[in-house]
Amino acid sequence: MRRVVRTICSTVLVVILSLMTVTTVQARNCKQLVIAGGENWYPYFYHGTAGEMGILGDMVLEAASSSDIRARLMPPIPWKRILYFLNSGQIDVVAGALKTVEREQYSSFSDPVAQLDLQIFLNREIPFEFSLPEDLIGKTGAKLRGASFGDALDQFAFESLVIQEANDSDSLFAMLLARRVDYAITFKFHGLRYIETHKLDNQLAMLPQPLTSVGLHVAFSKASKCPQLIELLAESLAQMAKDGRSRQIIERYNHEFSNVSWRLMNE
User: Fold this and answer.
1) Euclidean distance between CA atoms 219 and 210, whole angstroms
2) What Pfam families does the annotation carry (predicted)?
């Protein structure tokens, strides 16, 4: 009996030592973090012509640089795939995501970096009045695939609304232009910028009343093979919030917003 116990104990010890060895090797091999964000998600994450990466992109890259962490940017991919890769650990960091109960199963989150308005966009030829989410019942909407409105509104939408999904912003607004849907939901400045850059101001518009306001976070994969680097990055982001560098980045983009003229639905 003692011999069996010793054998079992020896086997367990070998397994533990093997796991510790694998973890140590992985730690030594952690030289970079893979970072991703929403595709052309102005002004939060996008590839700008002057090298800017959006509010969250600039924050994460500056935090990485401050901590001597090498960052590898994932090429633009659909949002749903970003979440899948975050879950599997193929992406370490997402620069800009809503915090939901489902996502907390596979991600940890920074403190809120910004508070964002989710807005309703319409085809000017088929307007309707809106003040509460219940006003959307009986209509067909659209959103980006995998996008969240926050836990409470996600549940309401699941139970009471008909919402189709689009792979990207082009598809989202094409559905609205073609009248395949009655409205589209996306973040305020992202939608307004899309309308401006594609010269759709006379065809599409934003309703003034926000659908909801949500906090935007940086998400960290719990399946990352580089938890030590993620911890350093999270600490660096928190320090940026304390010393004012995060606010400086936000103000840089706010200045750009103030130089753009946008029309609402009733204008």
Assistant:
1) 24
2) SBP_bac_3
* pTM, full prediction: 0.79
The answer to whether 210 and 52 have CB atoms below 8 angstroms apart is: no
Strand-pairing partners, residue 73, are 35
Q: How far apart are CA 123 and CA 135, in angstroms?
A: 17
- Say if CB 78 and CB 147 are below 8 A apart: no
Number of neighbours of residue 130 by Cβ within 10 angstroms = 18
Helix (H, G, I), strand (E, B) or coil at 64: helix
Question: Which residues 6+ apart lie within 8 Å of 29 measured at CB?
Answer: 225
DSSP state of 138: T
CA 223 centroid distance within chain: 18
Helix (H) or strand (E) holding 26: helix 2-29
Tens-digit pLDDT profile for residues 18-48 = 333 333 334 446 889 999 998 888 888 988 8
Count CB neighbours of 191 within 10 A.
24
